[in-house]
Each structure stands twice: as C-alpha cells, then as structure tokens.
Amino acid sequence: GTSMACPGVAGAALLVRQYFVDGFSPSGTKVPEDGFEPSGALVKAVILNSGRVMLGRDNSDKDLPVFTSTEFDESQGFGLISLVDGLYLKDKSKGKVHIWDREPLT
Questions:
Q1: How many CB atoms lie within 10 A of CB 91?
Q2: Chain-centre distance of CA 4, in angstroms?
Q3: Are 92 and 83 in contact (CB under 8 A)?
Q4: Quick one: pLDDT at residue 58?
Q5: Cα(7)–Cα(13) distance, rounded to whole angstroms?
Q6: Which of 50, 52, 61, 75 sits at a 20 to 30 Å CA gap from 96?
Q7: What ranges in 1-106 are assigned the alpha helix state H?
Q8: In this predicted structure, what is the pLDDT of residue 59?
C-alpha cells in the first residue's frame, strides 16, 4: 500500500526530472540542446497529470467482493502513475504534451 507508494513516486519524480534534463521535451526523443532543469512544480504537475484510473480495490483476502473505484476517491486518489501518459515519448505516447515552466501568469 502506501509504504511502497512513497519510493514509487520518488522514483517517478527522478525519471521525470531526467526526461527534461536529457532534452526529451518537446520532441519525445533525446536532444541534449533541449535539456533544462525543471522546477519542482513541473515535476509534481507531470506526476499528477499522469494518473491512470484504477479498476477497483481487491478485498479477496477478507472474503469481500472487489469494490469498484472512481477517480479521486479514497482508494486511488489521482490514480496509478503512468509516465508514458504524462510525458511525450515518440512512438510510445498516445498524445503530445505542451510544457510551460517558470512562465509568469498574466
């Protein structure tokens, strides 16, 4: 459960940071000239945006049925991290992602 969620999210955050530092944005392929140091807010936004809806909660060890789950409920929060859905990788991702970082809002 949650005891493994923390290291999982930490690892995902490291991969997100590496994606930007190595220059995978915006082309989805490694272009070192496109690399930049992402803000913590951008890393967090990518992780939150990458959430994939989970099917439900398994209670079979308690002889209870599997409960369905909906987005943002107490069982799944923002969902299962899926970085291929939150970041663009050429020939792997279904859609492109437009990135803004450290841009003033007007």
A1: 6
A2: 16
A3: no
A4: 63
A5: 10
A6: 75
A7: 2-21, 40-49, 83-86
A8: 60
Contact criterion met (CB below 8 Å) for 14 and 77: no
Kindly give, in sequence order, each residue whose CB lies less than 8 Å from that of residue 10, ignoring residues fewer than 6 positions away: none
- Token pair listed for 1: 């459960």
Residue bearing tokens 């992780």: 47
The one-letter amino acid at 82? S
The answer to whether the predicted template modeling score (pTM) of the entire model surpasses 0.70 is yes
Only one residue has tokens 């291929």, namely: 84
Q: Is the pLDDT of residue 63 over 90?
A: no
Q: What would the two tokens of residue 31 be?
A: 């272009």
Residues in the chain: 106
